[in-house]
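Minutes, project check-in
Item: structure for the 271-residue chain
Input as provided by the requester:
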Amino acid sequence: MTHTRDIPQSFWRDEQLPWLELRSTWQSQQAYKRHHHSQLSIGAILEGGTCCLCDDKEYHLKGGDLIVIPPLAPHSCNPVNGQFRSYHMLYLDARWCLAHLPALNSNQRLCTRTPVIRDPQLFQCYMHLVALMPQRQTTQITDAAQALLRSLPLQSVTPENLSVTSQYLRERLQSSLLSPPSLDELADECHMRKETLIRTFKQDTGLTPGNYLNIMRIDYARQRLRAGDEIVDVGYQSGFADQSHFHRTFVRYTAATPRQYALGRSISDNN
């Protein structure tokens, strides 16, 4: 079994381009828990194959394929039959995307009807953007990102209204990362059975309340790690009782260790 700490991967970020992040992973068999991102995610498969479940639809990807995952779309991307795969994942801030797509409504959310793209020219456009990043040419990177964005089959749609119960749960969990209420407490507050509460939330969001809480915690942890906070502090700030729980959860949702993410490169320790 390959440990996450041994998977060659890197994270590219630039303080001058806060709307962009790139993750590059090579020869990985690591699976992901179902999760979502607030950003628009664009993946490029370099080699091998992967199975992506997005909005309850299954897509099989191979080398040369791109996949577009809208913001907040629940998804998981896992290896096929234990095979290794290598890929890039590009994350673009949703508000930045809408600001540079004037034909779309900036008050709506991004979506796509064709998440899988098999277009060699567009794949090369993506790889050109990736190749620019190590050079730190921010103007060229911005131009290439905008060109890629405008080439994607994106639309804007009115966000679906959550039920009153799910909206309450989201706000309650977002404001209680350090000491979240139990499911029993939430069920009492919403005056419904726990099973009904979980089912309602999953129907509305595609996630269980527990998954949603973990995603919020990991998102917050990523923000603090990017800001340079110490890993041991970030774990507690994000609501994890101990470092081992923080480490395990971070890996399950990001397929990277907290230290890999903080340093932005591959490592050989288990912190």
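Outcome recorded: The first strand starts at residue 9 and ends at 12.
No further action items on this chain.
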